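User: What would this chain look like folded?
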Amino acid sequence: MSEQTASAARWRKSSFSGGSGTDCVEVAAVGSNVATRDSKDPSGPVLGFSRAEWGAFLAVAKRGAYDLP
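Assistant: Here's the prediction, encoded as structure tokens.
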């Protein structure tokens, strides 16, 4: 994803991120893909996923597969 595309994207973060916002991942719909970035470093690297990949990740996360013990 180009820097111009990333800066023009409408980024959002979870309402569960809390007030401090120090441990957040932001996501943005970019065309037919989903982009993710670290909210602490908005000019840093951006990872892109297809909507199918992102949906599969969310489905597994919602089942608790990534919950910390």
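DSSP finds two helices and four strands in the chain. If you want, I can go into more detail on any region.
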